[in-house]
Design a protein that fits this description.
The structure is a homodimer.
Chain A lengths: L1 E2 L8 H8 L3 H9 L6 H14 L5 H8 L4 E6 L7 H14 L3 E6 L3 H4 L14 E4 L6 H9 L4 E4 L11 E4 L1 H16 L4 E5 L5 H16 L9 E3 L4 H13 L6 E3 L3 H13 L9 E3 L16 E3 L2 H16 L3 E2 L2 E4 L2 E3 L8
Parallel strand pairs in A: 2-3, 2-4, 4-5, 5-6, 6-13, 7-8, 7-9, 9-10
Antiparallel strand pairs in A: 11-14
Helix pairs in contact in A: 1-2, 1-3, 5-12, 8-9, 10-11
Chain A binds a DNA duplex through helix 2 and helix 4.
Chain lengths: 341, 341
DNA sequence: GGGCTTTCTGAAAGCGCTTTCAGTATAGCA
DNA sequence: TGCTATACTGAAAGCGCTTTCAGAAAGCCC
């Protein structure tokens, strides 16, 4: 059994005492905020070394009113989507010398008695928000306080001028669906929506409708279901279509996870992909090209979105100005799941 | 363009003033640490409301010397492994009313000039360490200070009594390899190791060797390569084997990602899995059962490991005792990639 | 040599909170 | 009635740091 034996940490005054200087001087050599005589620097460094001193972050924050850290709020880490996003965000943060703190939690956000967000406005200088969980009112509360905020893949509540970074969902989906229609003659294309209220999904659906409309294909409501950007739910949704005998010549999975689920359901029901039913996704996660068949999808610059969001946030924190909205282009990636050779 | 207009936040004294009480009283109603008259509570609550007051975390930490938060240090979030792990950790933390802060970064850890870890010992009460990046010396520094620490999937540096949570890697791998040998008659089984220095991989390799030895199969060094628990690297490693004309009747991928890469390489080279070459992984990530062919693997209780680690850490933080080492059982999961129908 | 920067240093005032400590007022009890 | 618990409240002392502010020492100019 292991127990914890608390152990006093050295403070700045311990260091000052040992080095025979004042705490101001120690602070100066630690932060390099003012010239200090070489000899003094040596002494202080030595004292720091021997005491194994590290500044206490909370004290620093309190006195200096900044943390050097940005926070990321996200629903739940899973799925291939997050790796590139985090890479991008981290790159953006690092570039400016900021740390990244992630708060991944679905449940927590609401149920805190005191109603305060975990890392919001506390341990971080600014917040990257990528979750539908944070309500509009929470967001506007933070906004009204002047807390630096950047939204990832969602637009701000009406009237609030909060920067946001999103993909060109509509046009990307439209191009994809049109490919299905034109190149493969699909007419009955199933649409799997994302989670309720998801904005990306909203725009993708608009793109889907536009594509149909542009080619004179009537919208069939029975061809819409919810896949929730989740493999299992998507699989279930497609299985339900199949059970109901709904005819399909293609399925748009909503995203790549949804497409994966769709393929599972189709194959399980004995339909061949793409010979019997074409399938396409959105995002182009790393796995997409490795699937059997390789997935036709829309490439979204996930990593770049993260990067941009982070650097916009940091600009904001540092008192600069930021574009109110960034729309990143997407690109059609044709592989085999749509029927192309 | 959006600029940030900083905005004074209300402090505890603002609230006290508005409510006509002292700050001690405000603190008491916020924290419920002592009885306060009903009427006073009302006034304070009202003042908090109108001022939209939230306590300043850093100040709180500084004064109260605890953060109510545990930190998780990990190399880079990607791969299917993390979702269940994080779910588990979060569950463990939530249960005890702690927040979870994640610091995901490969690069950062070393290169910080001041040598201090980001969230270590600062914004958190304790640390869950899941990365090979944190050197032994860093770990023992933290340990010597009495900073609560729990290691995930790695054992502590020699002599340090730090709790750790690991899987039963050796026995699990041995069972898996023996299945390949006994049920499928495999004799030439490729072994893809994890990243350099990875402990899980070390034990798995021992299990692999034991299995071979137990069945009188000589160890062939050319059958060992590094897949680094990474799909691409594993694919490259297997491709190299194939190019060199090395004979194989099975490949153990090191983990499920490695197995995925192995399958890619094999299929790309025209070998059928499992007819020509059997493939197996380790972890049983969600995706494993959905692959073609479904992956034979060893199920590791990833989520439970996270849970346990978190609650052990919290026990430690709260001054309790903790087991020094937890070894979680693994289970063989037979699907089709090994050749079983 | 006097006045002027320039370089370096320490004292001290907070940052916003928690937590004794020392009450005052009221209730309970003999 | 007097004495002691009990409920409630405020003053004040930090927590460990950053940051003026002011001063001492040293170098520069005329």
């Amino acid at each position: 059994m292991i127990a914890q034996r608390p152990n006093k940490r050295a403070t700045i005054s311990d260091v000052a005492k040992l080095a025979g200087v004042s705490i101001s001087t120690v602070s100066r050599v630690v932060n390099e905020t003012a010239p200090v005589a070489d000899e003094t620097v040596q002494q202080v460094r030595h004292a720091i070394e021997t005491l194994d001193y590290t500044p206490h972050a909370a004290a620093r924050t309190l006195a200096g009113r900044r943390t050097g850290t940005i926070g990321l709020l996200l629903p739940e880490i899973s799925g291939a989507f997050y790796a590139p996003m985090l890479r991008g965000i981290e790159a953006g943060a690092l570039e400016a010398g900021f740390d990244l703190l992630i708060h991944a939690s679905s449940a927590v956000l609401q149920e805190r008695g005191n109603g305060s967000l975990p890392l919001a406005e506390h341990n971080v200088d600014g917040l990257l928000v990528f979750t539908d969980r944070l309500t509009d009112s929470e967001i506007s509360r933070l906004y009204r306080r002047g807390f630096p905020l950047v939204l990832l893949h969602r637009t701000p509540p009406a009237g609030l001028d909060i920067p946001c970074v999103t993909f060109e969902n509509k046009a990307g989906t439209r191009r994809l669906i049109e490919h299905l229609i034109i190149a493969h003659g699909c007419r009955r294309i199933g649409f799997l929506a994302g989670p309720d209220g998801n904005e990306d999904s909203y725009w993708r659906e608009l793109g889907y409708r536009e594509a149909l409309a542009a080619h004179g294909i009537p919208l069939d409501p029975s061809l819409r279901s919810v896949g929730a950007f989740d493999e299992e739910q998507a699989e279930a949704a497609v299985a339900a279509w199949l059970r109901q005998g709904i005819e399909l010549d293609a399925v748009f999975g909503g995203d790549d996870e949804g497409a994966t689920g769709a393929i599972q359901a189709l194959q399980r029901a004995g339909r061949r992909v793409p010979q019997d039913v074409a399938v396409a996704g959105f995002d182009d996660v790393p796995f997409a090209r490795l699937m059997t068949p390789p997935l036709t999808t829309v490439r979204a610059p996930i990593e770049m979105a993260g990067q941009q969001a982070a650097s916009q946030l940091i600009t904001l924190i540092q008192g600069g100005e930021s574009d109110s909205s960034t729309l990143l282009p997407t690109e059609l990636v044709i592989r085999r799941s749509c029927g192309c050779a």
